[in-house]
Write a structure and sequence with these properties.
The complex is a heterodimer of chains A (about 270) and B (about 525).
Chain A lengths: L2 H27 L33 H37 L1 H16 L2 H11 L6 H10 L1 H14 L3 H8 L4 H37 L11 H7 L9 H27 L6
Helix pairs in contact in A: 1-2, 1-10, 2-3, 2-5, 2-6, 2-8, 2-10, 4-5, 5-8, 6-8, 7-8, 8-9, 8-10, 9-10
Chain B lengths: L1 H13 L25 E6 L14 H10 L4 E3 L5 E3 L2 E6 L5 E6 L13 H12 L17 H6 L8 E2 L5 E5 L7 H6 L8 H6 L16 E7 L3 E6 L13 E6 L3 H9 L5 E3 L2 H9 L7 E5 L2 E7 L9 H10 L2 H7 L4 E3 L22 H10 L6 E8 L2 H15 L3 E8 L1 H9 L6 E7 L6 H8 L15 H11 L4 H18 L2 E13 L3 E2 L15 E2 L2
Parallel strand pairs in B: 1-10, 15-16, 15-17
Antiparallel strand pairs in B: 2-3, 4-5, 5-7, 6-7, 8-9, 9-10, 11-18, 12-18, 13-17, 13-18, 14-18, 19-20
Classes of the chains: A mainly alpha (about 270), B alpha+beta (about 525).
């Protein structure tokens, strides 16, 4: 492991740790309810002050409270989307790579089919059709994003299944399920972990993008992408409304990316 | 150097300092009268007019342009009083079913041909032709013989007669207190028969609309610009003052605002983001042009769907919503609505209490109705900045009484489609603007149970209200009508199919050189008396 990659993964870990800490400790980090609307003698959004360190938005809500609670949304969406992609992708990859033949051909055909579909369009259609809820966005991202996992895992399995210990297990009469679970899955995990970290940053970015075009998690759940979208016209008037959530999105994405690249070297896996 | 400036800019943004509000464009000091002729007025719209054919246009930009090009028999003054336009006077028969207009003798079309009563008759008959599919037909079905004409059993409408070139007589099948108001709509504008027949039967040549109006269409590059020029043969000699009106197409509010600041537009709207500091800035005070309009924005509660099929729930929602806060969130652009009718509407009752803001009582009401454990429902709202802001405020108010609203932001056309069908939209936010200043245009159109397929989108129905509205329909005595309407309004407010939110006002900002630019409560601004100082 090089010094550079150590430094990268440390930075990534720090940012991700910070994100998780803010999400976990949000209620202790701010006295405000992120949904509480306070409008007294309203004169537009308030600039940052001692009472509201990052100012208030157009509904008099505390921006720091919304960004802090928004980290929960981003992590929730990221973890759930990634979990879904992981489960589908790894299963498909294992089965496809292990059995080969017609099973492999069919499953890879499905993967190709999903891959040929324009992702953004698919995301927009799915989020428009499904009812708005906190689960819609991760579901949609998960359903679209599993193909990378499937392909990577399948590739790994293709080489692993010819290894001596797998051949031996098969000769000893181990069942397919046992071989996949005990001998193949552990072999592909390091690659999957890296992909998951990179995928988290992708999911956070996609969530922000979907929220930005109005298809993200519903109001009043605080969401970074939604904040950027809602207040873009205020960039000149109240820049903190856009800059703060924008910065949060950037840090979240960069954090998971760095972590992913750091892990690549740490676990000695190839970068896909 | 450039990099340094960008860095400084980024730092300014990052530290949360707003970019200061620009000064308004410079121009001549106030006054400078009497009105001077000349100059080009510059204005911007997001999109082209859909039509310049008055029989077909039914949107703000189309009406704005049509008002420049055409005239109607009667029109409104700066307020809602009916005044002569192409007619000099009119008389209503004692039974109320016949209206006789005398026309001005000096009106000519821009082709130079004199306008007569035959043109008035032709224009309305053309509007009523089924082949034209005019959205204005519904306003004129009470003229005698329209049915026969529409069905093809007659070649003319016998209820429109032209006994002399300077006279037109309308015979109605029943008394219609709103007939004059309907004639003020651009649908009833007088068009040039000869010019239209040269071009065939359908919509006329949109590049050469021929009317009697103060302006002529000089140029239209679709999607880019329109240019209107002064009509030298306009019948009100000496007006308009402006030489021309130049329209830029494709500007949204934000872009229009920037163009205004650069002095490239003579009038513009103010984007929501800038509004608070513009109205607070003394440099802009004298440049603001504002007017209350005949509009009410409201929450619609679908009386045909649970949980809003229960009066108690609807009343509780009314009492839970903090309307004062909503007005503040709308940058103070309007006044709190307690009833249905807006303040400039005849019959408006300033003393109407409505259901007062009282969250504790609202919670108790819900508990009594058996909803103590809470209610969840979906709330449809148009996907725009201000609407979403207000919707979130409502969401928060209702959360306080135990109602969980799922916000469903949709595009405006989808919202209109959704609310028209029964059983789809439990709760929505909408606005209504009167076509003419009569309570029936709110109460009858929006609350009569027979209109559930068109504009009664809350599917409200109350036989008592229907009866009151029916009685008022054909009554000519204004005071008695208003009494009936008021009684109906009181009942509707009590039944609470709406949460009336606010009566919004319009606010524009003008270039300092612009004079006599006023907003109208019902119609687009008229330009005959607008002038620019130098």
């Amino acid at each position: 492991m090089t010094r550079r990659s150590r430094w990268l993964s440390a930075c990534g870990g720090l940012l991700v740790g910070l994100l998780v800490a803010v999400a976990a400790l949000a209620p202790w980090l701010t006295p405000y309810d992120p949904a509480a609307i306070v409008v007294e003698h309203y004169h537009g959004p308030e600039r940052p002050s001692a009472g509201h360190p990052l100012g208030t938005d157009t509904l008099g809500r505390d921006v720091w409270a919304r960004v802090a609670y928004g980290s929960r949304t981003s992590l929730f969406v990221g973890v759930l989307a990634m979990g879904l992609s992981l489960v589908i992708g790894v299963s498909v990859g294992l089965v496809s790579g292990y059995f080969g033949g017609a099973v492999d051909a069919t499953l890879m055909w499905v993967v190709d089919l999903v891959l040929t579909m324009p992702t953004l369009l698919l995301l927009i259609v799915l989020s428009a059709v499904l009812p708005p809820s906190l689960f819609t966005v991760p579901l949609v991202i998960g359903l679209v994003g599993w193909t990378t996992f499937a392909r990577t895992v399948r590739g790994e399995v293709l080489s692993l299944r010819e290894r001596d210990y797998v051949v031996a297990a098969r000769a000893l009469g181990a069942s397919h399920g046992r071989i996949i679970r005990r001998h193949l899955l552990p072999g592909v995990l390091p690659g999957v972990v890296v992909l998951a970290a990179l995928g988290m940053s992708g999911a956070i970015a996609i969530d922000a993008g979907l929220s930005y075009i109005g298809l993200g998690v519903p109001h009043p759940t605080p969401s970074w992408g939604r904040m950027v979208s809602d207040f873009q016209t205020y960039l000149g008037v109240a820049p903190w409304l856009v800059m703060v959530p924008g910065l949060a999105i950037a840090l979240g994405v960069v954090g998971f990316n760095l972590l992913g690249y750091g892990l690549t070297d740490l676990l000695g896996t190839r970068r896909s | 150097m450039k990099g340094l400036r960008a860095l400084a800019m980024a730092l300014v943004l990052a530290t949360g300092c707003a970019v200061p509000l620009d000064a308004p464009p410079e121009g001549p000091a106030e006054g400078g009268g009497p009105p001077k002729a000349g100059g080009t007025f510059r204005v911007a719209f997001p999109e082209d007019p859909h039509h310049l054919d008055p029989a077909l246009g039914y949107d703000t930009v189309s009406w704005w342009a049509e008002q420049l090009l055409f005239n109607t028999l009667v029109t409104y003054d700066e307020g809602t009083r009916i005044v002569p336009d192409l007619a000099t006077s009119w008389e209503t028969s004692t039974d109320g079913r016949q209206v006789t207009f005398r026309l001005r003798p000096d009106v000519v079309f821009s082709t130079g041909r004199a306008m007569t009563g035959a043109d008035v008759k032709y224009s309305l008959e053309r509007l009523l032709k089924p082949a034209l599919h005019s959205p204005g037909v519904e306003f004129f079905t009470d003229i005698e013989g329209v049915d026969d004409y529409v069905q093809g059993r007659a070649t003319e409408v016998r209820g429109i007669r032209v006994p002399a070139p300077d006279q037109v007589v309308f015979a109605l099948t029943q008394v219609d207190p709103l007939f004059l108001h309907k004639l003020t709509m651009p649908f009833a504008a007088v068009v040039d028969r000869e010019a239209i027949e040269r071009g065939g039967d359908g919509e006329f040549d949109r590049r050469r609309p021929i009317g009697t109006g103060a302006f002529l269409l000089a140029e239209w590059t679709y999607g880019q610009t329109l240019r209107f020029e002064r009509n030298p043969s306009y019948f009100r000699t000496g007006t308009p003052y402006l030489d021309a009106i130049q329209v830029t197409i494709g500007a949204n509010e934000q872009l229009g605002w920037l163009q205004y600041l650069r002095g490239e537009l003579d009038v513009a709207g103010i984007p929501s983001a800038e509004f608070a500091r513009v109205v607070a800035d003394p440099r802009y005070q004298s440049l603001l042009v504002s007017r209350t309009t005949l509009r009410t924005s409201y929450l619609g509660l679908n009386c045909g769907m649970a949980p809003f099929d229960r009066v108690a729930v609807r009343q509780a929602v009314n009492m839970a919503v903090d309307k004062q806060r909503i007005v503040e969130l709308a940058d103070g652009r309007g006044v709190v609505a307690r009833g249905i009718l807006p303040p400039d509407m005849p019959g408006y009752d300033a003393g109407l209490e409505g259901l007062r803001h009282d969250p504790a009582a609202a919670r108790a009401l819900l508990a009594d109705a058996g909803f103590g454990s809470g209610i969840a429902t979906t709330f449809w709202v148009s996907r725009d900045d201000l609407a979403l802001r207000i919707a979130q405020s409502v969401q928060e108010d209702l959360r306080a009484i135990g109602m969980d609203l799922r916000l469903k932001p949709v595009d405006f056309p989808a919202l209109i489609e959704g609310v028209r069908r029964p059983g789809i939209v439990p709760m929505f936010m909408f606005g209504w603007e009167a076509d003419f200043p009569d309570p029936s245009n709110f109460l009858d159109v929006l609350f009569n149970s027979r209109n559930q397929e068109t504009n009664n989108n809350t599917f409200y129905g109350n036989p008592d209200v229907d009866r009151l509205l029916g009685q008022a329909q054909t009554l000519l005595d204004p005071a008695a009508r208003l009494r009936l309407f008021h009684e109906a309004e009181v009942r509707i407010v009590r039944d609470a199919p709406w949460v009336p939110l606010m009566h919004p006002s319009s606010v524009n900002v003008r270039n300092p050189r612009v004079r006599n630019y006023v907003l109208h409560p019902l119609r687009p601004t008229r330009f005959e008396r607008v002038w620019v100082a130098s």
